[in-house]
Design a protein that fits this description.
By secondary structure, the protein is mainly beta. It has no helices and ten strands. It is globular and about 50 Å long.
Length: 154
């Protein structure tokens, strides 16, 4: 993996928000324009009664940090409540999922390293998605039982 030279300034107005592929959660990638091969950083805005994918990683550790609201996540068999400005570091092998069982948006900053090169745009390697999603990635935590997410209208 190559280190960047110098620095990259990212203005919030330069961020591009888009819905995630699987769960349709609004997110903005801070580092996609920098070309970093070492670290990833993304904002995730979880609407009320929503969840991100249940997943793990091959090599990457992830740091989950709550910027707005009260965060909820499951790590392995545990459910954690993360206060505003609280954080959780999760190792690659642990299944994890952020979710929102409240009536207000929650904004997370999620930073991961090392970047898994298989996911970088233009990667020539074929990714075995079962390494990331060993179970159904759309599985919701028990706290969202009865919720239909992602909604069909998105």
């Amino acid at each position: 993996m190559n280190a960047i030279h110098g620095y990259h300034f990212i203005n919030p107005t330069d961020l591009v928000w888009r819905p995630s592929n699987v769960m349709k959660i609004p997110n903005a990638d801070y580092l996609e324009r920098t070309g970093s091969e070492n670290i990833g950083a993304r904002l995730w805005r979880l609407p009320p009664k929503s969840a991100n994918t249940l997943h793990k990683h091959i090599r990457a550790e992830e740091f989950y940090f709550v910027l707005e609201g009260e965060g909820r996540m499951r790590v392995g068999d545990e459910t954690l409540t993360v206060p505003r400005y609280g954080g959780v570091l999760v190792g690659p092998d642990m299944l994890r999922q952020v979710f929102n069982d409240t009536d207000a948006d929650v904004l997370w900053l999620i930073i991961g390293a090392p970047e898994e090169l298989e996911f970088l745009q233009g990667s020539k390697s074929t990714m075995d998605l079962s390494l990331i999603y060993p179970v159904d990635p759309k599985q919701l935590p028990k706290e969202l039982a009865g919720t239909d997410w992602p909604p069909n209208s998105i």
